[in-house]
Amino acid sequence: MDGRSELGAFLRSRRARLKPEDSGLDTYGDRRRVPGLRREELARLAGVSVDYYVRFEQGRTDTVSNAVVDAVATALRLTDAERAHLHNLARAVGRRPATPPAPAKQTPTQGQLRLLAAMPDVPAYLVGRRTDILAWNPLYAELIGPLDTMAPEHRNTAWLTFLDADVRARYVNWDVKARNVVAYLRRDLGRHPDEPAFTALIDELTTASPEFRKLWAEQQVADRTDGDYHMHHPTAGELHLSFESFVSTADPNISLITYTAEPGSPSETILRRLTPRSPGRPRHGRRPPPPQATPSMTSTMPRPTPIIREELREEHRA
User: Fold this and answer.
1) pTM
2) Which of 208-230 are b and which e, b meaning 16 or more Cβ less than 10 Å from the residue's Cβ?
3) Sheet with 124-127, edge to edge strand ranges
4) 12: Cβ–Cβ under 8 A, 6 or more apart, which residues?
5) What is the pLDDT of residue 297?
6) Residue 260 forms beta bridges with which residues?
7) pLDDT computed for residue 227 by the predictor
8) Residue-level pLDDT at 292
9) Which helix (H) or strand (E) holds 28?
10) Is the dihedral of CA 141, 145, 151, 156 positive or negative?
């Protein structure tokens, strides 16, 4: 990531969305060539000199105090997520190591995998940096698509949302999903500005998707911890689901995302129908998909459990 250009683009986009009168500034009826606050107006609101703010916006300051960043954020009326993003961008411009350290590989803990396995009737997955999908349970794969058979590099929420036609078709309100993903992705980029894989993902999406390119240029930053999606399953029909995000204490860059339906709703009934009879183990990493049963394998497959045998007897009697 080019820290200077990223910082400048973000600050210019936030100046553009504010009107001088909204901040109590007099315009004296002057005609403006560009929308929003001028640099000198923002500098006045933040209590810094115009020259200092110009150098800050252009990334020409080695270090900027947290107090100055907070003053600029307050003048721009940033949200909490945007304020944190501005601090991340300012730090990235200030340090710029010659050789960025290699990012640590993200691996779900055994406890996290057990948690996924313990909720077979709730679509759930673990997401890491860059919106990489680190692990998932069978019901989430049933809802979103066959993750087991996808290339590992495509098991990424942003990539699937914009470049996988099947996944896109499963979100009826795709525009909401797309905006949420882009806003989260930009927030995450601010926290990990030196990862080459992050830059490669942004470049690929920008080149391949005009919609991503348009949304990325809007400089939206947010941490979507909850919300609603209207989804379409190719065989089960439409569902209205709510999502919740839970951050891992072991690694704050890993979150558990769950999808739930309103109790007693048609969507809950559909989720129950989609829940695998045998929940299975959560999938993760680069493990290959499990072998499928074939006629040559039937003799080696385990015998039915007593419960399943009883169900078979009931069906035979019926």
Assistant:
1) 0.79
2) ebeebeebbeebbbbbbeeeebe
3) 226-233, 237-247, 255-260, 124-127, 133-136, 283-284
4) 57
5) 32
6) 242
7) 95
8) 39
9) none
10) negative
**Beta strand 255-260 pairing with 133-136:** unpaired
Write out the two tokens for 251.
């690694």
- What pLDDT was estimated at residue 101? 65
Q: What is the pLDDT of residue 141?
A: 95
**Domain annotation for the chain: domains and CATH numbers:** 3-95 (1.10.260.40), 110-284 (3.30.450.180)
| Alpha-carbon gap, residue 223 to 235, rounded angstroms | 32
Residue 245 corresponds to which amino acid? S
Q: How far apart are CA 272 and CA 266, in angstroms?
A: 10
200: its two tokens: 């490669």
Which residue type, as a one-letter code, is found at position 10?
F
Q: Which residues of 255-291 are buried (b: 16+ CB within 10 A; e: fewer)?
A: bbbbbbbeeeeebbebbeebbeeebeebbbeeeeeee
Q: Which residue numbers in the chain have pLDDT < 70?
A: 1, 26-32, 34, 94-102, 277-281, 285-318
Per-residue model confidence (pLDDT) at position 296: 33
For residue 111, the one-letter residue type is G
Instruction: For residue 248, give every residue at least 6 positions away whose Cβ sits within 8 Å of its Cβ, in sequence order, or none.
Output: 112, 126, 254, 255, 256
Length of the chain in residues, anyone?
318
pLDDT at 181: 97
Cα separation of 132 and 149, whole Å? 16
At residue 306, the pLDDT reads 40
